[in-house]
Design goal:
Helix 5 packs antiparallel against helix 6, helix 6 packs antiparallel against helix 7 and helix 7 runs antiparallel to helix 8. This protein folds into two domains: 253 residues, 2-Layer Sandwich (Beta Polymerase, domain 2), CATH 3.30.460; 55 residues, Up-down Bundle (Methane Monooxygenase Hydroxylase, Chain G, domain 1). The protein has eight helices and seven strands.
Length: 332
Amino acid sequence: MQDNHQAQTPAESGLIHAYLLDGQGGGRYMDWSGVEQWEPSQGALWLHFDYSQAPVRHWLEQQGDLDPLVAEALLTEETRPRTLPLGEGLLIALRGVNLNPQSQPEDMVSIRLWVDEHRIISTRKRRLLSVGDLLQSLEAGRGPHGTDDLLVSLTDLLVWRMSDTVEGFENTIDELEDRLLGTDTRGLRTELAQLRKQTITLRRYLAPQREALSRLLVEKVDWFDEGCRIRLREVSDRLQRHIEDIDAVRERAAVTQEELLSRNSEQLNSRMYVLSVVAAIFLPLGFLTGLLGINVGGIPGSDNPNAFLLFTGILVVAVVLQILVFRWRKWL
Protein backbone atom coordinates (compact mmCIF):
# COMPACT_ATOMS: atom_id res chain seq x y z
CA MET A 1 0.00 0.00 0.00
CA GLN A 2 1.52 3.32 -1.01
CA ASP A 3 1.63 6.06 1.59
CA ASN A 4 -0.65 8.42 -0.34
CA HIS A 5 -4.29 9.31 -0.62
CA GLN A 6 -6.15 11.63 -2.93
CA ALA A 7 -7.94 14.47 -1.19
CA GLN A 8 -11.62 15.04 -1.84
CA THR A 9 -12.14 18.38 -0.09
CA PRO A 10 -9.86 21.32 0.72
CA ALA A 11 -9.91 20.37 4.40
CA GLU A 12 -8.88 16.87 3.44
CA SER A 13 -5.98 17.81 1.15
CA GLY A 14 -3.38 17.01 3.79
CA LEU A 15 -4.97 13.75 4.88
CA ILE A 16 -2.84 10.82 3.72
CA HIS A 17 -5.21 8.20 5.08
CA ALA A 18 -7.85 7.58 7.72
CA TYR A 19 -8.11 3.97 8.84
CA LEU A 20 -10.69 2.52 11.22
CA LEU A 21 -9.44 -0.54 13.09
CA ASP A 22 -11.90 -3.38 13.61
CA GLY A 23 -10.10 -4.82 16.65
CA GLN A 24 -9.36 -8.07 14.79
CA GLY A 25 -6.20 -7.08 12.93
CA GLY A 26 -7.94 -5.39 10.02
CA GLY A 27 -10.21 -2.49 9.30
CA ARG A 28 -11.27 -0.14 6.54
CA TYR A 29 -10.39 3.21 5.04
CA MET A 30 -12.64 6.15 5.77
CA ASP A 31 -13.31 9.31 3.79
CA TRP A 32 -13.45 12.71 5.40
CA SER A 33 -17.16 12.59 6.05
CA GLY A 34 -16.65 9.30 7.89
CA VAL A 35 -13.94 10.89 10.00
CA GLU A 36 -16.25 13.74 10.97
CA GLN A 37 -18.96 11.28 11.99
CA TRP A 38 -16.61 8.90 13.81
CA GLU A 39 -17.42 7.88 17.37
CA PRO A 40 -15.07 5.95 19.72
CA SER A 41 -17.65 3.17 19.90
CA GLN A 42 -16.98 2.40 16.20
CA GLY A 43 -13.37 1.40 16.91
CA ALA A 44 -9.93 2.92 17.08
CA LEU A 45 -9.19 5.49 14.38
CA TRP A 46 -5.78 6.16 12.80
CA LEU A 47 -5.40 9.53 11.08
CA HIS A 48 -2.21 10.12 9.12
CA PHE A 49 -1.48 13.66 7.87
CA ASP A 50 1.08 15.58 5.86
CA TYR A 51 1.67 18.47 8.25
CA SER A 52 3.16 20.67 5.51
CA GLN A 53 -0.35 21.20 4.03
CA ALA A 54 -2.19 24.30 5.29
CA PRO A 55 -5.57 22.56 5.83
CA VAL A 56 -3.90 20.17 8.26
CA ARG A 57 -2.80 23.02 10.49
CA HIS A 58 -6.36 24.40 10.52
CA TRP A 59 -7.91 21.02 11.35
CA LEU A 60 -5.43 20.15 14.11
CA GLU A 61 -5.70 23.57 15.74
CA GLN A 62 -9.43 24.15 15.32
CA GLN A 63 -11.29 20.89 14.73
CA GLY A 64 -9.14 18.04 16.06
CA ASP A 65 -10.19 18.46 19.70
CA LEU A 66 -6.53 18.59 20.72
CA ASP A 67 -4.63 20.46 23.37
CA PRO A 68 -2.81 23.45 21.78
CA LEU A 69 0.52 21.99 22.93
CA VAL A 70 -0.27 18.72 21.12
CA ALA A 71 -1.35 20.52 17.94
CA GLU A 72 1.83 22.59 17.95
CA ALA A 73 4.00 19.49 18.47
CA LEU A 74 2.28 17.66 15.60
CA LEU A 75 2.98 20.60 13.29
CA THR A 76 6.52 21.52 14.32
CA GLU A 77 9.18 21.36 11.63
CA GLU A 78 12.13 20.27 13.77
CA THR A 79 11.73 17.72 16.51
CA ARG A 80 13.79 15.24 18.51
CA PRO A 81 12.60 11.77 19.55
CA ARG A 82 10.71 12.03 22.84
CA THR A 83 7.73 10.78 24.83
CA LEU A 84 5.54 13.18 26.78
CA PRO A 85 2.41 12.14 28.72
CA LEU A 86 -0.49 14.59 28.60
CA GLY A 87 -3.61 13.56 30.49
CA GLU A 88 -4.72 10.15 29.23
CA GLY A 89 -2.68 10.41 26.03
CA LEU A 90 0.91 10.28 24.90
CA LEU A 91 2.72 12.75 22.65
CA ILE A 92 5.51 10.91 20.87
CA ALA A 93 8.12 11.89 18.29
CA LEU A 94 10.10 9.15 16.53
CA ARG A 95 12.46 8.89 13.57
CA GLY A 96 13.09 6.29 10.91
CA VAL A 97 15.90 5.86 8.41
CA ASN A 98 15.35 7.60 5.10
CA LEU A 99 14.96 4.81 2.53
CA ASN A 100 13.38 7.01 -0.13
CA PRO A 101 15.10 7.11 -3.56
CA GLN A 102 18.03 9.51 -3.92
CA SER A 103 18.28 9.90 -0.13
CA GLN A 104 20.88 9.12 2.50
CA PRO A 105 19.84 6.76 5.34
CA GLU A 106 21.28 9.04 8.01
CA ASP A 107 18.94 11.82 6.84
CA MET A 108 16.23 10.45 9.10
CA VAL A 109 12.51 11.02 8.62
CA SER A 110 10.51 12.12 11.64
CA ILE A 111 6.97 11.14 12.54
CA ARG A 112 4.93 12.80 15.28
CA LEU A 113 2.15 10.95 17.09
CA TRP A 114 -0.65 11.70 19.48
CA VAL A 115 -2.03 8.48 20.94
CA ASP A 116 -4.91 7.92 23.31
CA GLU A 117 -7.22 4.99 23.94
CA HIS A 118 -9.44 5.51 20.89
CA ARG A 119 -7.45 7.55 18.40
CA ILE A 120 -3.95 7.90 17.02
CA ILE A 121 -2.97 10.94 14.97
CA SER A 122 0.35 10.89 13.11
CA THR A 123 1.97 13.58 11.00
CA ARG A 124 4.93 13.59 8.69
CA LYS A 125 6.39 15.53 5.76
CA ARG A 126 8.42 12.90 3.95
CA ARG A 127 7.27 9.38 3.19
CA LEU A 128 8.06 6.57 5.64
CA LEU A 129 8.15 3.01 4.33
CA SER A 130 7.27 1.69 7.78
CA VAL A 131 3.81 3.31 7.53
CA GLY A 132 3.23 1.51 4.24
CA ASP A 133 4.31 -1.78 5.85
CA LEU A 134 1.83 -1.25 8.67
CA LEU A 135 -1.01 -0.52 6.24
CA GLN A 136 -0.22 -3.69 4.31
CA SER A 137 -0.49 -5.77 7.47
CA LEU A 138 -3.83 -4.13 8.27
CA GLU A 139 -5.15 -4.82 4.78
CA ALA A 140 -4.08 -8.45 5.14
CA GLY A 141 -5.91 -8.75 8.46
CA ARG A 142 -2.70 -9.26 10.43
CA GLY A 143 -2.36 -5.75 11.78
CA PRO A 144 -2.72 -4.18 15.23
CA HIS A 145 -5.96 -4.42 17.20
CA GLY A 146 -5.90 -1.09 19.05
CA THR A 147 -4.01 2.14 19.39
CA ASP A 148 -1.48 0.68 21.84
CA ASP A 149 -0.85 -2.25 19.51
CA LEU A 150 -0.58 0.11 16.53
CA LEU A 151 1.95 2.29 18.36
CA VAL A 152 4.13 -0.70 19.22
CA SER A 153 3.82 -2.13 15.70
CA LEU A 154 4.85 1.16 14.13
CA THR A 155 7.80 1.48 16.50
CA ASP A 156 8.79 -2.10 15.74
CA LEU A 157 8.73 -1.45 11.99
CA LEU A 158 10.77 1.75 12.36
CA VAL A 159 13.48 -0.15 14.24
CA TRP A 160 13.26 -3.18 11.93
CA ARG A 161 13.80 -0.93 8.90
CA MET A 162 17.07 0.20 10.49
CA SER A 163 18.50 -3.33 10.36
CA ASP A 164 19.48 -3.23 6.69
CA THR A 165 21.14 0.16 7.13
CA VAL A 166 23.17 -0.98 10.13
CA GLU A 167 24.12 -4.20 8.35
CA GLY A 168 25.16 -2.12 5.35
CA PHE A 169 27.49 -0.09 7.57
CA GLU A 170 29.03 -3.29 8.92
CA ASN A 171 29.57 -4.66 5.40
CA THR A 172 31.13 -1.37 4.34
CA ILE A 173 33.63 -1.30 7.19
CA ASP A 174 34.51 -4.96 6.49
CA GLU A 175 35.28 -4.05 2.88
CA LEU A 176 37.32 -1.00 3.86
CA GLU A 177 39.36 -3.01 6.35
CA ASP A 178 40.10 -5.59 3.65
CA ARG A 179 41.20 -2.83 1.29
CA LEU A 180 43.54 -1.49 3.95
CA LEU A 181 45.32 -4.85 4.00
CA GLY A 182 45.76 -4.67 0.22
CA THR A 183 47.86 -2.34 -1.89
CA ASP A 184 45.14 -0.19 -3.43
CA THR A 185 44.12 2.37 -0.80
CA ARG A 186 43.13 5.17 -3.17
CA GLY A 187 40.07 7.01 -1.89
CA LEU A 188 40.04 4.94 1.30
CA ARG A 189 40.53 7.91 3.58
CA THR A 190 37.54 9.74 2.06
CA GLU A 191 35.30 6.68 2.31
CA LEU A 192 36.24 6.14 5.96
CA ALA A 193 35.47 9.77 6.76
CA GLN A 194 32.10 9.47 5.03
CA LEU A 195 31.25 6.30 6.94
CA ARG A 196 32.16 7.92 10.26
CA LYS A 197 30.00 10.92 9.42
CA GLN A 198 27.01 8.69 8.59
CA THR A 199 27.29 6.63 11.77
CA ILE A 200 27.74 9.71 13.97
CA THR A 201 24.69 11.38 12.44
CA LEU A 202 22.56 8.25 12.73
CA ARG A 203 23.53 7.67 16.35
CA ARG A 204 22.74 11.27 17.22
CA TYR A 205 19.08 10.53 16.50
CA LEU A 206 18.94 6.94 17.74
CA ALA A 207 20.22 7.73 21.23
CA PRO A 208 17.28 10.04 22.11
CA GLN A 209 14.92 7.56 20.42
CA ARG A 210 16.12 4.91 22.85
CA GLU A 211 15.34 7.30 25.69
CA ALA A 212 11.89 7.96 24.21
CA LEU A 213 11.10 4.23 24.17
CA SER A 214 12.41 3.83 27.72
CA ARG A 215 10.14 6.66 28.84
CA LEU A 216 7.22 5.03 27.04
CA LEU A 217 7.86 1.79 28.92
CA VAL A 218 7.55 3.40 32.33
CA GLU A 219 4.57 5.64 31.64
CA LYS A 220 1.44 4.43 33.40
CA VAL A 221 -1.55 4.80 31.11
CA ASP A 222 -4.57 2.56 31.60
CA TRP A 223 -5.09 1.75 27.93
CA PHE A 224 -1.51 0.55 27.31
CA ASP A 225 -1.66 -3.25 27.57
CA GLU A 226 1.01 -5.21 29.44
CA GLY A 227 1.56 -7.43 26.41
CA CYS A 228 2.35 -4.33 24.37
CA ARG A 229 4.86 -3.27 27.02
CA ILE A 230 6.64 -6.61 26.70
CA ARG A 231 6.80 -6.24 22.89
CA LEU A 232 7.98 -2.65 23.25
CA ARG A 233 10.74 -3.80 25.59
CA GLU A 234 11.95 -6.18 22.87
CA VAL A 235 11.87 -3.34 20.35
CA SER A 236 13.88 -1.17 22.75
CA ASP A 237 16.44 -3.94 23.21
CA ARG A 238 16.78 -4.32 19.44
CA LEU A 239 17.28 -0.58 19.08
CA GLN A 240 19.97 -0.75 21.76
CA ARG A 241 21.75 -3.47 19.76
CA HIS A 242 21.60 -1.29 16.66
CA ILE A 243 23.18 1.57 18.59
CA GLU A 244 25.91 -0.73 19.89
CA ASP A 245 26.57 -2.02 16.36
CA ILE A 246 26.77 1.56 15.07
CA ASP A 247 29.22 2.42 17.86
CA ALA A 248 31.32 -0.60 16.90
CA VAL A 249 31.35 0.44 13.23
CA ARG A 250 32.32 3.99 14.16
CA GLU A 251 35.17 2.76 16.38
CA ARG A 252 36.38 0.33 13.70
CA ALA A 253 36.30 3.15 11.15
CA ALA A 254 38.34 5.35 13.50
CA VAL A 255 40.90 2.58 14.09
CA THR A 256 41.11 1.85 10.35
CA GLN A 257 41.58 5.54 9.62
CA GLU A 258 44.35 5.78 12.21
CA GLU A 259 46.01 2.68 10.75
CA LEU A 260 45.80 4.20 7.27
CA LEU A 261 47.39 7.43 8.50
CA SER A 262 50.08 5.44 10.31
CA ARG A 263 50.81 3.41 7.18
CA ASN A 264 51.02 6.54 5.05
CA SER A 265 53.32 8.12 7.63
CA GLU A 266 55.56 5.05 7.63
CA GLN A 267 55.75 5.09 3.85
CA LEU A 268 56.61 8.77 3.87
CA ASN A 269 59.26 8.25 6.53
CA SER A 270 60.73 5.36 4.56
CA ARG A 271 61.00 7.48 1.42
CA MET A 272 62.46 10.40 3.36
CA TYR A 273 65.00 8.02 4.91
CA VAL A 274 66.16 6.78 1.52
CA LEU A 275 66.43 10.33 0.22
CA SER A 276 68.38 11.36 3.34
CA VAL A 277 70.88 8.50 2.89
CA VAL A 278 71.37 9.32 -0.79
CA ALA A 279 71.81 13.00 0.04
CA ALA A 280 74.33 12.17 2.79
CA ILE A 281 76.36 10.03 0.40
CA PHE A 282 76.44 12.56 -2.42
CA LEU A 283 76.94 15.66 -0.27
CA PRO A 284 80.76 15.22 0.15
CA LEU A 285 81.04 14.05 -3.46
CA GLY A 286 79.31 17.17 -4.62
CA PHE A 287 81.57 19.28 -2.42
CA LEU A 288 84.72 17.72 -3.90
CA THR A 289 83.58 17.93 -7.51
CA GLY A 290 82.41 21.49 -6.96
CA LEU A 291 85.71 22.46 -5.37
CA LEU A 292 87.76 21.03 -8.25
CA GLY A 293 85.41 22.51 -10.83
CA ILE A 294 86.10 26.14 -10.07
CA ASN A 295 87.72 27.99 -12.93
CA VAL A 296 90.90 29.27 -11.23
CA GLY A 297 94.53 28.42 -11.57
CA GLY A 298 96.34 25.96 -9.36
CA ILE A 299 93.85 23.08 -9.61
CA PRO A 300 95.80 19.88 -8.69
CA GLY A 301 96.28 17.46 -11.57
CA SER A 302 95.17 19.83 -14.29
CA ASP A 303 98.23 18.89 -16.34
CA ASN A 304 98.17 15.16 -15.46
CA PRO A 305 96.33 12.95 -18.04
CA ASN A 306 95.57 10.36 -15.32
CA ALA A 307 94.13 12.88 -12.86
CA PHE A 308 90.47 12.15 -13.77
CA LEU A 309 90.84 8.40 -13.15
CA LEU A 310 92.68 9.09 -9.91
CA PHE A 311 89.99 11.53 -8.73
CA THR A 312 87.24 9.07 -9.67
CA GLY A 313 88.94 6.39 -7.59
CA ILE A 314 89.11 8.79 -4.65
CA LEU A 315 85.36 9.41 -4.95
CA VAL A 316 84.65 5.66 -5.05
CA VAL A 317 86.78 5.14 -1.93
CA ALA A 318 84.92 8.01 -0.24
CA VAL A 319 81.55 6.39 -1.03
CA VAL A 320 82.73 3.01 0.32
CA LEU A 321 84.02 4.63 3.50
CA GLN A 322 80.69 6.45 4.00
CA ILE A 323 78.75 3.24 3.56
CA LEU A 324 80.97 1.46 6.09
CA VAL A 325 80.52 4.29 8.56
CA PHE A 326 76.73 4.23 8.05
CA ARG A 327 76.61 0.50 8.64
CA TRP A 328 78.80 0.83 11.72
CA ARG A 329 76.45 3.49 13.09
CA LYS A 330 73.48 1.24 12.06
CA TRP A 331 72.03 3.92 9.80
CA LEU A 332 71.68 1.36 7.01
